[in-house]
Amino acid sequence: xxxxxxxxxx
Amino acid sequence: xxxxxxxxxxxxxxxxxxxxxxxxxxxxxxxxxxxxxxxxxxxxxxxxxxxxxxxxxxxxxxxxxxxxxxxxxxxxxxxxxxxxxxxxxxxxxxxxxxxxxxxxxxxxxxxxxxxxxxxxxxxxxxxxxxxxxxxxxxxxxxxxxxxxxxxxxxxxxxxxxxxxxxxxxxxxxxxxxxxxxxxxxxxxxxxxxxxxxxxxxxxxxxxxxxxx
Lengths: 10, 212
Hints:
The complex is a heterodimer of chains A (10) and B (212).
Chain A: no helix or strand
Chain B: H1 3-26, H2 34-47, H3 58-81, H4 96-108, H5 115-129, H6 132-141, E1 143-144, H7 146-173, H8 178-200, E2 208-209
Antiparallel strand pairs in B: 1-2
Helix pairs in contact in B: 1-3, 1-7, 2-3, 2-5, 4-5, 5-8, 7-8
């Protein structure tokens, strides 16, 4: 499955 | 953390350091768009509000704090410390034409209709176009110092490297963030013309000067 969002980037 | 993201972050970090060094060593902010730098300060402030709500890693937190802090130092340099050298006559891009549509779009197209999420989306959209006042200034004056070109190249490379990071994450982690990807593509495309000039001129020892 595709993980859509997690704001772990900069 | 893959290599594209790490090198992208380092490129972003390098861009900020190049800009600060240029201003500090030359005691001048000539050729730098204060408007773009204000937009970057808004971008970092609205994106990193999650510093208060979630923790990812020491690396993530310290980079966020550094980006927010240096963006305000940069704005302070331009509008206070080195104000006499600021070329406001050539920094005439109308930023409301960016902020208003981007704000509206963030309100309409987001992952989740909540305050933090809308502000995050706003920052992603705004970052993609925040360099326009700077590029407008370069095209208006028809030239850019080599050091300003290095800054722009490092800053543009960062999002291009993030595109590779997103391709990598899609295949190996099943991660996909449509908003970030579309905005990242727009952001990178805006730099293409500059990348061309940088490779054909600056790397051969010439500075960028456009025909009048």
